[in-house]
Records
---
Amino acid sequence: MRALMAVDAILSRTSHVLLLLSGIALVAMMLQVSADVVAKYLFHSPIKSTLDVVTYYYMVALTFLPLAAVERGGGHIAVELLTQVFSPRWRNRLALLSALVSCAFFGVLGVITLSTAIQKFHIGEYVMGTLHLQIWPSRFFVPIGFCLIAMVCLAKALRDAFGLFGVSQEDERNG
Amino acid sequence: MGDLSIALIVCGALIGLMLLGVNIGVALGVSAFIGTWIILNLDVALGVLSGIPYDFAASWKLSSIPMFLFMGYLCYHAKLTDGLFRAARLWLSNLPGGLAISSIGAAAGFSAVTGSSVACAAAMGRIAVPEMLKSGYDKGLASGVVAAAGTIGSLIPPSILLLLYGIFAQVPIGQLFLGGVGPGILTALLYSLMIILRVRANPRLAPRVVESISWRDRFSALVDVWPVLAIAAGVFAGLFAGLFTPTEAGAIGASLSLILALARRTLTRAGFLAAVKETVWTTAAIFVIAIGAHMLTRFLALAGLADALAGLVVDTGFHPLIVMAGMAVIYLILGMFLDPIGIMLLTLPIFLPVVEALDIDLIWFGVLVTKYLEIALITPPVGLNVFVIKGVVGKEIPTSTIFHGILWFIVADLGTITLMLLIPEIVVALPNAFW
């Protein structure tokens, strides 16, 4: 049980760091796109590769890195209407089912996108815009995000299954 | 078993998974994966999983969504738009139910910086509801008007729903945004008209606020709000004139809002971090569903279900208006238990081929669906806007009172929808004038 709590603490910290990174990507994206517009219209010299960096780095970071943090905070969208009418016991079982399905789905996605990322690393994937831009590194954001959310779902499933951690979901949301 | 029957079973399984509380994005992805596996083979199904997430997310077009979200959250957390209610109040409070109408006016103004109805309702709720209660307004009216007025947030540009629609239906964002302006204004007008009529009939709903307001006060209130409205106007003028792409418009809007907030010293460190976090959070939550929806689209196309349905609807020979009205019913039912973005992404793969087969204007359809979904935000049992307002007002007003107060606004909305169905120009006149 203590081991699982330790794992949970690690998951919590890792998802927080990834959330922070995606926040940095967001602010960087706003600044770079704005700067590009200003440079384009005022100085007639756009910032090279803005479109590609936004597309292949900022957007990929924004989409996949926060996944685990959003899952931990209960931010992913689900239908709650029907689950409300079940007894707490059944609600717990449904939560377990839902966590297991999510864990399996994200786990498969994590493994398969990892193999894609490794493949792109080997061929050194790049795009040819105004600059020659290596884009294979951002391929790894995808498996990182998916694997971590799969682990968060697994931890959730374990907690639902055994009531292991002795912390209610509310505590965790606040924490 | 034919592909079509498999597709139907998969759709049934999808609905089952969602009702059991599985995340919508996961439910969409899992059903699409299993469906593809059955009708083709495991390799193709895994190929869909490995390709779609990255290909979908790495998109310049999609990047407009986080940018517009960020602009809205920044304005909200920096309280840049709090002056809107004061300004609207000074101009409109002489009307019957003036404070309620001011809330609508302020919500329409806030809509120009936010693309989310829920954010719009939250912003107005925190400012306008206490004022109305203090003046002795009926609790249902005071809370209902902000929940309903919030729905203007997704019609007047920017609009996250319209952005998503535009990306999925491949319709230019600028035209869609312009298409939302007419219905947004119409909604505000019909709401106001309804309030005036109701207060005329029953003055106790909204006691007249006696205060002498000079023209000087009125104009000085505008000074407070013009910068943020000017930012919105500038950004959209640039977008409609073709100077900015949607992403650039959103980024410039967010940057200028940030600069304005820093200049006014209204943005705290905590407020800034909250804006960043909520933007990232919402973006990821939306994109997970969008990725799942994309997988389902691919599967439905493979199975030929969407085309079969389109053929079926065309064969019935129903007038497009009947089909659109029928869709309204489906959207209202889905809206009872699903959130608007989920419904939009869930239904587009199935409905778009029908709409295209019937030769219905895609801009008109997109704005109409957005309006349908907005009504879903204020209908029981799961009106998201209602719960937002409930969160703002606390114990003072029970949820049932808010829903009760909203009934009349739903009546006004039915009027808006009828007008939009019968007079498509309300939607398409502006985009057509520009293009």
---
Amino acid sequence: MIAYALTFSFAAVSIALMLNLYRLAKGPTVMDRVIAVDTMVINVIALIILYGIYQGTTVYFEAALLFAMFGFVSTVAYCRFILRGDVIE
Amino acid sequence: MNPFVEFIVSAFVVIGGVFLLVGSFGMIKLPDLMSRLHAPTKATTLGIGSALIASVVFFAVAGEFSIHEVLIAFFLFLTAPITAHFVAKAYMLRHRDRVEGQLPDTRRRCGWSTYDPAPGRESSEAADPVDGRG
């Protein structure tokens, strides 16, 4: 039963990643692309966690945690750069 | 594994997948960036929270409970609003012409604080009488 649910979620998250990729390629403004990459990072974290359940191992959670931190820091750094022209004042 | 636990995990996994898909679909469907911000920050955060609950339940029942999922959930729930706030501020600054007429008046010379000059770049900002009221 979990295997069917995981297959469904893998498909859903993969479609979500394709939709984000579309927004990343099309995005009329720069901030559209930034938010698309941020959502992509969250979807990748979800994919890693679902793959961890699928494999029955907890070793992938460090990777997910690193992705979460890296995605947040990169988004905020880019927004700071646009806001002030400088990441750290 | 206990069928009841299996059902709970499956339900959370499916709910998480659906919400992640809805959040990303909202990014395609909604008309401009200020509306588009709602989809990733609300639906997607809910979806990943649901997937993390499924993971916590699955590994707790399997006997290898780990604190990492809780950490990831805490971190993501903490950072999603901050990301949205920064993206909205940067959008307001870059596309001032699009949002100018829709914002309420703040009775300050510069308007919203996003449009303030960077600290140390303009000394006359401190002399703004309306700003001094706090």
